[in-house]
Amino acid sequence: MRRGETFRWIGACLGQLAAAAALVVASIVDGPAALLLRAVPWLDTAFWPAEGAIRVLGLLAAVELVVRARRTARRHWWRRQRFDRAPGRPFPIPLDQRDADLEILRSMIRISRTYPAPAIRLFGQILLDPARYQVRITDEVRQVDECLRVSVSTTFSSAPDDLAGLREDAVVGTPGASGPGHASTVSTTRPAPGGPTAGGQRTGTASALLTRPAVPQDRRTGPGDPGDPAGRSDNPAGPPADPAGGTQHPPVMLIPMILSTKGAMLDNVETFDGAGDPVPFLSQEDARGVVAHVLRQLFRETFGEAVHAVEERRHDAVLFALLRLVFQAGRVSVADADAYFDRNVAPIRDSADDIALRRLRGVCSFLVRNYVVIAEVLPPDGYAWILRYTKTMPVYGRATSPRGRRRVRLGLAPNTFVIPLNLPFTTTSYHFRMRAGANTYVKVHSVQLAQSGASVDQAAIRDMSDRAYLRVRHRQALPYAHLYARRFDTCRDPADLVMEVVFDEVPPGALGLTSWLAALSALVITLLALLVPNNDGSRISGDVLAFLLAISPVAATFVGYSMEKLQRSSLTTFAGLVATGATSLVAALLYVQPSPGWLLAHPTVPLLGQIRVNLGVFAVGVVGGLVAAYLFFRLRDELHHYVDLLRDVEHPGTGRPGELS
Amino acid sequence: MDRGADPGVGDDLLDSLPADAVVAYRGEPRASERAMLLWPMTAERRQAFGAGIEWVSNQLRTMDDERVGRFLDELADESRRLGLDTVPPPEEPSDGRGRSAG
């Protein structure tokens, strides 16, 4: 925005408002209209009633000027915010086929030179069979400002075989053993029934890097080929020296730590190991190389090993077509991805195992829309290790409904959260915990189907799997929510589940204070109507007036002494506060004004005799009493509910059926 | 839960929930999506899987630029011969609220 433009906008806006004010004054006050009529006498005869018409026109013109001023101010505000200065949507990144293939291949080569093969193998096994390795996931959520902060702690466990290769690799560390030929350390102890076979009569081509290269028959004698069930090697002397010059791999593991949706930004992600030390994760290019290794192996398990050179080239072409799809920047729709997959595997479809082909398509569909964040961690001393990551989760839906919008406009914080349950199906044991702010307890904690919102009960869990177990700790007046799920990994068809957690303030809380203040206000106003009914204009009781006017700020001070507490209170509490303040103010205004005679009554009350009553103030007192009564009803329900929960916890078994699930 | 990825899911969810509920956006695949990735393995297949990965890793480790160039040439020729598709364009990125990123 140019210098001086702000003053021009403000000047225009103020000028329009000033003109509108002048028109209103001219239209309402008698003098200006009469002056105009005297100055132009024919108006009075030409238009009847000319004076009234002029006044109406003047008011309409004033309204129009106010509307224009509002638009001017809004345009100015909009331009000053500089909303249009964001970078905008990122463009798609088109990549030539050869460039894409080169990137993929280079990332695979780099990974194979950087990390020991057992590390890549372990990564693939954890990625594809997570429940075998992830024995416990703890999902902890807490509210931070307007968002949620989640901390996911995963306990991994492995069998001795899983880490054997890594430890051998670390221990041996000699060029001959940890270089390219190091795989022999694994292959000698573990024959590979499904690995590449001896290769037969294939001819060597460049494409043979992904399938077994042909070598002279007389050289296949050593045990160096891990894929050879017979333990024979293509190159008994070991592969050529590593071009990168690295011959010793560090003892590290590659762990799939986070699965994230492509296109979604990870906010404030931090990763730690069990000791709380930061854990590095791989770059996108390196992660691509690791995942490509896994996909290549799944591809080979699906389509088998190519026998002839022509077939090898065909397999390689189809494999790289799938890799290009998976590593496409951005998220492709499932329908497009599946169609692409089907068309591209068609040339070699006949050689595929149907079940494996279906699984491979699923893996590709997943990786087309999601990516893997891979952590590099040191192998544990034992067989279990812990990794943890934290990130911020934005929330949406706060202003979707009128009720939600009201809460936002009143500055109230959300107290009902819906959190997707994505992780229980990939681990044997899953814990979810969530804690709200101070002086709150869990009122409702339920599990629902994401699509329909239907509640999930134990019968539905049993339908998913006989071994699945779910328990929710709620209706116990606890300040935190806790869900425990076990063996959901045995569910044949994982459902998209969400949790709904509703927090409420511990009664009486702000609602109780508001109720008492509303009752006190109503009592004072009513007594004022009965005992100090009239202001005769000469002796206004300043004390009474001050007391009435002080009720609102006192109420606000009492209830809102903690801003956080007030933000977490209910709409009822907020409305009660407003009503209490409004009745106090109206009563004060009625008291200040000298009351007309018809507003005063003189009833006769037993024991007191005849009294004077200010009916206006009395009516306000009655309204205040009704407000207080409603607030007390709500408070009583909340208190009874809370006390019932406490009593049921103290005497388990006396609770109503279904209270503990 | 990703409203952008699966139009309608989030809206249905919001319709079925209390009016003052807010939905946490995890930015992660849902359980049904994760199930697509599962590939349970027997001990025998796990061994075969590991051996295959180690074998190709060893092969790639020794690949020099000349072989890379030859491989890419053959790959391009074969892809052209088979008439393989070009990758479909990506969807517009979303921040999960059904609204475009950026």
Explained architecture:
- Chain B: Residues 79-102 are annotated as: Disordered.
- The complex is a heterodimer of chains A (661) and B (102).
- With 661 residues, chain A is of the alpha+beta class.
- In chain A, 47% of the residues lie in helices and 17% in strands.
- Chain A has helices spanning 5-28, 30-39, 41-46, 50-81, 97-114, 117-128, 130-133, 160-172, 175-178, 184-187, 284-303, 309-326, 334-345, 354-369, 402-409, 458-464, 509-531, 542-559, 563-567, 571-592, 615-650, and strands spanning 134-144, 147-157, 253-261, 267-273, 370-377, 384-393, 395-396, 416-421, 429-435, 440-449, 469-473, 480-486, 497-505, 600-601, 604-605, 609-610, 613-614.
- In chain A, a hairpin with a 2-residue loop joins strand 1 (134-144) and strand 2 (147-157).
- In chain A, helix 18 (542-559) packs antiparallel against helix 20 (571-592).
- Chain A is elongated.
- Chain A starts with a helix and ends in an 11-residue tail after the last helix.
- Chain B has 4 helices and 1 strand, in the order αβααα.
- Chain B is extended and about 65 Å long.
- The relative contact order of chain B is 0.15.
- Mean pLDDT of chain B is 76; it is low at 1-11 and 98-102.
- Classes of the chains: A alpha+beta (661), B mainly alpha (102).
- At the A-B interface, helix 5, helix 6, strand 3, helix 11 and helix 12 of A face helix 1, strand 1, helix 2, helix 3 and helix 4 of B.
- Strand 7 of chain A pairs antiparallel with strand 1 of chain B, so a sheet runs across the interface.
